[in-house]
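FW: tagging you since you asked about this chain on Friday. Here's the raw sequence from the shared folder, copied in full. Didn't touch anything.
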Amino acid sequence: MRNGPNRIGLILLGATLFGIAVAVLKGGDAGIRDSLGNISAPWLLLPYFAGLTGKGPLRGASLGLMASLAALAGFYVAEAFVLDLGGHPVLTNLALTLGAGRMYFAAGVLSGPVMGALGGLRVRHHRMLTAAVVGLALAGEPLAVFAWLGSQSMSPADTGLVVSYQALWVGELTLGVALALGILVKSLPGRRIQPGRTV
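HL: got it, structure written out here
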């Protein structure tokens, strides 16, 4: 993938397909699918991994921004077809869904370049940085959710929000820790065996 335009095209295509897939997964009803579709960590990791393909933080930031906006556009365009918005014409549905996503587009304009720039950093121990980003994104979200619940002095079921699926958040936290540890273990240098010596 040396060709810049080809790389950008693949990133935009992949990000758009990611957004469409999340919209289809989320569906139009409340429940576990809605909760899965509302997990925000993948939306932070997407621009980070897009930024990994760049050469340096500035290139990574631009790739992260493009990935975030393409994914959001794919998501909200797909939502116009996934959601039951009352039998309006397609253009009206598109205006409704894209308009509803204004806040998330604004957030993507901020988070996309930041995460992309982190991905584009050329540091000596890049796998350790990746482990930290993956771990913080996946494990940090559930911890923030549980901290918010604790500050509200209510049970998850009382909120009526997606936080009511505790197993989902525990699973995300576990996945984040497991992936971060796996990346760290892979980054450890292998033990070298000198000739003529046994371990």
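FW: DSSP finds nine helices and no strands in the chain.
HL: agreed, and The two ends are 41 Å apart (CA to CA).
FW: great, closing this out.
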